[in-house]
Known about the structure:
Largest sheet: none
Shape: rod-shaped
Strand content: under 5%
Amino acid sequence: MKPVNLNKYRKVKARVNKKARADQNAMAFGRSKAGKQKDTQQIQTLRDKLDQHKLDKE
């Protein structure tokens, strides 16, 4: 019978758990790059529209 390195299995288990938690967080908090860019573009459009309606003080 060959001795088994338990540290190897412990590390694999920890890695799997960490990956599972990362996947859950990505589902809960993650956003795609396209989604972020779309929101940034919408915010910029709204700012431009607001700036167009500002009155100049002379």
